[in-house]
Amino acid sequence: MPDLLTKDHPITEKGMMEFQPFGREPDGTAIRDLSGVVIRALVEELEDCFSKKEGPVAGKMAVLDLVRRLNERIPDPAYRVTEDFLRNPWNSYANEFSAYCTQFCSDITGDPDFQYNMARRKAISPIIQTLLRRFPVQQIYKMSLYIAQRYSRNSFFVDAVSISDRWALMRLTFSDRTYRHFGPYRRSCAKLWCDAVRGYFVGVPEIFHNLPPAQVKERSCIADGDEYCEWEVAWPASESPSRFWHINTWIRRTTPSTQIERREQIIEEQARSLDAWHDELQKAYAQQQQLSAELQRRVDHLTTLYDAGLTFTSTRDRSILIERAMDVLIHKLSYDRVMITFYDPIRQVAHGAHLLGVSPELQAMAKTLEVRVEDPSSIEGAVYLKGQPVLVTDLKSTRLRLHPLYQELAARVGTESFLSVPLKIKDSTIGSITVDRNKTQGLTSHDLELMVTFANQLAIALDNADAYREIEALNVNLELKVHERTSQLEVANQQLQELNQLKSAFVSVVSHELRTPMTSIRVYVENMLDGLTGALNEKQTHYLDRILFNIDRLTRMIIDLLDLSKIEAGRMELRLAPLSVDALIDDTADTFRASLTQNTISFKVSHRNGSVTIQADKDKLTQILTNLVANAMKFTLPGGEIQIATATTQDGFLSIAVTDTGCGISQEELPRVFEKFFRGESTPSSARGAGLGLAIVKSLVELHGGTVSVESTVGKGSTFSFTLPLI
């Protein structure tokens, strides 16, 4: 038996309600009575009190205030109430809820006699008034036990200990179930009920027979520590004391006794049938009430899970994720405490517990706990080793299956029941979630199902957070490596640029220095061939011709190197002027015509759009054409053909193509033909040059604002094309 508080301590002091407000008792018994009639009367009386003083709006606001206060004390959102719900007389309520509702009404009005006035004016339903109006006051008081049972279903009992024509001794007692709902606030709750019953006793003569109110004298009261509440009730005589006797006597005298008995029998049968139908209807309504609450709970849980899923996907921070998950469990799913623990399967140790709903001291203690898990039959073993959820409704009966460290933690917290579900990723357990509520048997199989789903969501979110953290670490390392390599490449590139500049300068200097001796050698060779040094035999002449040929070849190479170094150094300047392309091509053809005739290579020129004038550097364009025609001659066998064709394009360019019927270039080598010093493997060794001619062509064309391209088929020949912008 709990320590009882005085009647000055209202039940609303304890905070949240402990029992389900309607539907079922903790043992599964359905709540079925007429308490909905009383709750509706409370709401109507509350509204009337304010409406009479301050107007209808104030009355409406007072009822909404009552609804708000009640919902703030109902822990399960599925059982939250509305104004319409409270006004439904078919609802049945737990005694704890009725006590809260009554106390709140008294608090809102500030009237200590609120319950008394309500019961005197509104507690008796119109149906009861109609049924009992045919009975005298004495009989109505005598039937108080029956009436109380209709309203309360064994919650409280009102009995007529002694009764006479104008006086009765009435007694009120409560059932053990009701006392469990009242808890240590038994006396203050009993006072609420006593006030209501006293108001009913006073109002019986008024309500049923329009007589003056009864006089009620209190003899004992549970609120003052007595075993029961007891009153002396006295009521005035009716206007015609023998009225009921005269009516009954007249009926009996004018009606045969058999007919009277038959009618009384029919009335009793109808009354029993009416009671049976009422019970069935009330039972069905109570079931509907419970199903509605269960459905609402499922909807609330699904909504919470959906919101939790959105919350989990909105962050990749592990600590924030854990914090938000615990906040959802405490504030949305109404658990009193929650602990999220992680598990190391290699060491078989549960560690790093995060605890919410306890003192900072216990939070710090839980975080330092390391619990070794080796026994599959223990509660920890079932969760971590078997991956099974565990619901413990009575910790005392399973305490020994709990690790001693967790036993100590549970004792300090005051846990009576809890459930623990694993955090699983595929077949691996990474931790657990443990929740509990203060009240006994506060956790059910519905909580277990909900927590399994919640744990699966959280486990996936934690796994994603870990993966994201690993990816971030890899990205950071990759960024560092990329930065390091970039720095190295920048240094290397800078060195390469310096080396390239040195190379270009070296090539330029060497090429320039080579031109002077090469010119001298050429002059001496030409003098010897002209006979200035005397007559030459045939063999000497042949050798000097070969020397002169290679001098020309080396000279061209030196000129190419000088041009390339100028281009790379950005010192190549263009002297642009209007230029007739067809005339330039004809001049180039004349340059090669003798060599082409000697090698029996045919040469053709075609101008699709006739004479075209462009803005270009004549010398550089001549060099481009010369390099391309020379390149074509090098790879075209005797009997072959070289063709130069020009055409204008729709986008404002002149296209010049040099086509040969030479050996062609392989597809693998095509992308590299314009690279410096590139010489293809498929090129005959006799035709290989320094690999500078095409590179110079590309650079000179691009200086003019054009592009170069090549098409080739091995064994059939190649076409080198370049474009130049029209004027």
What does this entry look like structurally?
About 55% of the residues lie in helices and about 15% in strands. The chain is α+β, with helices and mostly antiparallel strands and about 725 residues long. A hairpin with a 2-residue loop joins strand 9 (about 420-425) and strand 10. Helix 12 packs parallel to helix 18. It is rod-shaped, with a radius of gyration of 54 Å.
Helix content: 40-55%
Main sheet properties: 6 strands, antiparallel
Distance between the termini: 110 Å
Total of helices: 22
Portion in beta strands: 15-25%
Biggest sheet strand line-up:
7-6-5-10-9-8
Shape, per Cα inertia axes? rod-shaped
Are there runs of 5+ residues with pLDDT below 50, and where? 239-252
Mean pLDDT rating: 84
Structural class: alpha+beta
Q: How much is the radius of gyration in Å?
A: 54 Å
Tell me the total number of β-strands: 17
What's the short story on this structure?
With about 725 residues, the protein is an alpha+beta fold. Helices cover about 55% and strands about 15% of the residues. The strands form four sheets. It has a six-stranded antiparallel sheet, with helices on both faces.
List keywords for this structure.
727 residues, alpha+beta, 6-stranded antiparallel sheet
Helices and strands, with pairings:
Blueprint: H1 35-54, H2 56-73, H3 83-86, H4 95-109, H5 114-121, H6 126-132, H7 137-142, H8 144-152, E1 156-163, E2 167-174, H9 176-182, H10 186-209, E3 215-220, E4 229-234, H11 243-254, H12 257-313, H13 318-331, E5 337-344, E6 349-356, H14 360-368, E7 371-372, H15 379-385, E8 390-392, H16 395-398, H17 404-413, E9 418-425, E10 428-436, H18 445-529, H19 538-569, E11 577-580, H20 581-598, E12 602-607, E13 613-616, H21 618-635, E14 641-648, E15 653-660, H22 693-703, E16 708-713, E17 717-725
Parallel strand pairs: 12-14
Antiparallel strand pairs: 1-2, 2-4, 3-4, 5-6, 5-10, 6-7, 8-9, 9-10, 11-13, 14-15, 15-17, 16-17
Helix pairs in contact: 1-2, 1-4, 1-5, 2-4, 5-10, 12-13, 12-18, 13-18, 18-19, 19-22, 20-21, 21-22
